[in-house]
């Protein structure tokens, strides 16, 4: 049964007569007996289809032929199994002048306008990912048929941009305007069924029914969904202005305009020009060209390439198909569930049955949020097997230990399971603090032992630190890195050192916030200023999120191992709170109190007393110790690549993406300026602000 289902899921793509056509450039083109042209985009130079100037120029040649030959109809689809198209190739804009960018966009608009103006019916058949410029290409067709696995979206906002090939014009005209705008403003992709409900696509079918759906599109059985009354109303500026005010308010609740201008420019464009397609088209090109020259967009494009570089650390396959996780606590349970969601067979063990049951319950909720498709959730849960007896250890290709941070306990676990491991199996620990050399000291074969440090929650935090030690085999590190990439996480190779990279850098940020709180600054003000800098969460709320007990343990351990001058001592009241089990969000009380919705109860900052003034050094006191720790890690060889360092901090801590990463931010601000500032803070607040010697070497 399993093989049959797999065969059905991998059904050959319906490509019409183009299946047998010889590729010509980026397309395969063939005409059937009814005069219908099938155009299959299948770029030979890339593993996925992207939209760039050469591809559009080739499309223009085919369109010119259609304008002359007048085929009965044109079908446009992808020959790549992964999807229709992944969007524009962002490389084409890097380093280009504003004039060149405008010229390229104008040419692209002209090509898609000609496609839209063809006198014959045009149909886009969409499967897999259809993003950005790929969706704009599909929107230029008369009809869109989505295969059930399709996912459509405009992710340009993630690069500090908005659509630039007519998406701002065509998406609101084809789909419900507010839904289309929301899609562009958030960058979130939309599954096929949802896309049909808002009018973005005209039909959703299984792959085996594509040919029939195409026929229906040509012979009138597939009609466009009429625009709603609300959609028609948006043709008038008063209605758009009202909706735009709501959009600005919601957007401002999530991002600041000075940090992320793109969504606000998109709202301006639509409000002003939404009733005039030609004016909107021109304004879209001008706005896109200005945004791509902004510091925000340059830094977010940098982050995009950082992500790609981290993905490229994968060399070959991991050889892992069966994962066994030991420890069904918060981390172990999420690691197991996430790996199952990515297609791995996972067995989950613990010394007690109850934690496994709770972990499966939490996994179900997490998978429902992450996968959204009940069938995918069911399949993932089928792959997640409770294993209280630990039978999976002997069959697993990788065993991850996620037990509490007690070295004696971990040694006991390793002694029990190492003899059971099959040949070639890897053993990993999810420790966030313990030295790997100490953990490996009792192993008979430490060469296959590695750190895989995930971050909580695993389903949302993209980073995995791949922690090496002196006895690790290069093949073990390679396979561990590949496994992280195979479960859609971003690997960062680090050496075993106190706190590794992320905890080493994040702890000073959190510890200094507690000092500020101890000095009398309101916790809401401290969090507000950090969020204004661009952090996703203020350090006080983050400490509650991590857990006061864990934060105290990590800070105390790092201070002991790195020296008293590296971190401030924890306030006495923090120890007392931990003793009283006021541990933060997980107990409902910590530095904040928490409501039933799990959100902290905060006093509005504008309601704070007049004497609750800022420490003028507040932002630098929070951020510069973090940068100092990052520089220390680079200087000490904990991590060796500046770009991977920036990526790890962005994807592991949420360090303000629009700033391009802490090292990039430091270079933009000026290393000499930062060193001078830290010396001033050290003179005022103590030696923990003394700049690390690595700053000088960073200038070399």
What does this structure look like?
There is one protein chain. The protein is an alpha/beta fold and about 700 residues long. The protein has 3 domains: about 15-295, 2-enoyl-CoA Hydratase, Chain A, domain 1 (Alpha-Beta Complex), CATH 3.90.226; about 320-500, 3-Layer(aba) Sandwich (Rossmann fold), CATH 3.40.50; about 505-640 and about 670-700, N-(1-d-carboxylethyl)-l-norvaline Dehydrogenase, domain 2 (Orthogonal Bundle), CATH 1.10.1040.50. It contains 29 helices and 18 strands. It has an 8-stranded mixed beta sheet with strand order 13-12-11-14-15-16-17-18, sandwiched between helices. Helix 6 (about 175-185) packs antiparallel against helix 11 (about 260-275), helix 10 packs antiparallel against helix 11 and helix 11 packs antiparallel against helix 12. The longest helix is centred in the N-terminal third of the chain and has 20 residues, at about 100-115. The chain is globular. Pfam families: 3HCDH, 3HCDH_N, ECH_1. GO terms for molecular function: enoyl-CoA hydratase activity; long-chain (3S)-3-hydroxyacyl-CoA dehydrogenase (NAD+) activity; NAD+ binding. It catalyses: a (3S)-3-hydroxyacyl-CoA + NAD(+) = a 3-oxoacyl-CoA + NADH + H(+). It comes from Jiella flava. This is enoyl-CoA hydratase.
């Amino acid at each position: 049964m399993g093989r049959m289902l797999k065969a059905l899921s991998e059904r050959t793509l319906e490509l019409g007569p183009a299946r047998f056509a010889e590729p010509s450039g980026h397309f395969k083109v063939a005409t059937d007996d009814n005069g219908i042209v099938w155009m299959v985009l299948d770029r030979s130079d890339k593993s996925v289809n992207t939209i760039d100037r050469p591809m559009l120029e080739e499309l223009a040649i085919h369109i010119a032929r259609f304008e002359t030959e007048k085929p009965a109809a044109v079908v446009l689809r992808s020959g790549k199994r992964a999807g229709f198209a992944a969007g524009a190739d962002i490389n084409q804009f890097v380093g280009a002048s504003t004039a060149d960018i405008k010229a390229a966009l104008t040419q692209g608009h002209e090509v898609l306008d000609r496609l839209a103006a063809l006198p014959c019916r045009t149909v886009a058949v969409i499967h897999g990912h259809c993003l950005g410029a790929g969706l704009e290409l599909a929107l230029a067709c008369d009809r869109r048929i989505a295969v059930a696995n399709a996912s459509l979206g405009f992710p340009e906002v993630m690069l500090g941009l908005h659509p630039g090939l007519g998406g701002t014009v065509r998406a609101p005209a084809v789909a419900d305007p507010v839904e289309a705008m929301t899609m562009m403003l958030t960058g979130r992709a939309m599954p096929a069924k949802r896309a049909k409900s808002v009018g973005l696509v005209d039909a959703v079918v299984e792959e085996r029914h594509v040919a029939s759906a195409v026929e229906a599109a040509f012979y009138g059985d597939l009609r466009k969904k009429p625009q709603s009354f609300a959609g028609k109303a948006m043709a008038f500026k008063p209605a758009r202005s009202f909706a735009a005010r709501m959009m600005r308010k919601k957007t401002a609740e999530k991002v600041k305009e000075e940090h992320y201008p793109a969504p606000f420019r998109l709202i301006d464009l639509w409000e002003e020009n939404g009733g005039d397609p030609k004016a909107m088209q021109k304004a879209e090109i001008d706005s896109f060209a200005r945004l791509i020259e902004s510091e925000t967009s340059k830094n977010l494009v940098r982050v995009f390439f950082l992500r790609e570089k981290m993905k490229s650390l994968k060399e070959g396959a991991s050889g892992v198909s069966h994962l066994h996780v030991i420890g069904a606590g918060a981390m172990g349970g999420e690691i197991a569930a996430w790996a199952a969601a990515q297609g791995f067979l996972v067995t989950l063990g613990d010394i007690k049955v109850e934690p496994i049951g709770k972990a499966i319950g939490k996994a179900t909720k997490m998978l429902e949020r992450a996968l959204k498709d009940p069938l995918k959730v069911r399949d993932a849960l089928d792959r997640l097997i409770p294993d209280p007896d630990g039978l999976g250890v002997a069959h697993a290709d990788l065993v991850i230990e996620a037990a509490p941070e007690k070295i004696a306990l971990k040694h006991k676990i390793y002694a029990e399971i190492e003899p059971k491991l099959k040949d070639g199996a890897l053993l990993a620990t999810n420790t966030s603090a313990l030295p790997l050399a100490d953990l490996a000291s009792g192993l008979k074969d430490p060469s296959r032992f590695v750190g895989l440090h995930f971050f909580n929650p695993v389903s949302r935090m993209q980073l995995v630190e791949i922690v090496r030690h002196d006895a690790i085999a290069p093949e073990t590190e390679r396979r561990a890195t590949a496994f992280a990439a195979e479960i859609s996480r971003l690997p960062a190779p680090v050496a075993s050192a106190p706190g590794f990279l992320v905890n080493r850098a994040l702890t000073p940020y959190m510890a200094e916030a507690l000092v500020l709180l101890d000095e009398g600054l309101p916790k809401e003000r401290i969090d507000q200023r950090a969020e204004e800098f661009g952090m996703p969460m203020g350090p006080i709320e983050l400490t509650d999120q991590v857990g006061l007990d864990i934060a105290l343990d990590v800070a105390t351990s790092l201070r002991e191992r790195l020296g008293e001058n590296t971190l401030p001592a924890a306030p006495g009241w923090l120890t007392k709170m931990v003793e009283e089990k006021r541990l933060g969000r997980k107990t409902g009380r910590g530095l904040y109190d928490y409501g039933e919705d799990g959100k902290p109860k905060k006093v509005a900052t504008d309601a704070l007393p007049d004497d609750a003034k800022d420490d003028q050094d507040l932002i630098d006191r929070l951020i510069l110790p973090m940068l100092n720790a990052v520089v220390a890690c680079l200087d000490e060889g904990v991590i060796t690549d500046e770009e991977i360092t920036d990526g790890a901090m962005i994807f592991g801590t949420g360090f303000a993406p629009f700033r391009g990463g802490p090292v990039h931010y430091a270079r933009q601000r000026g290393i000499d300026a930062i060193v001078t500032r830290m010396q001033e803070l050290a003179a005022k607040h103590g030696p923990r602000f003394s700049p690390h010697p690595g700053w000088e070497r960073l200038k070399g």
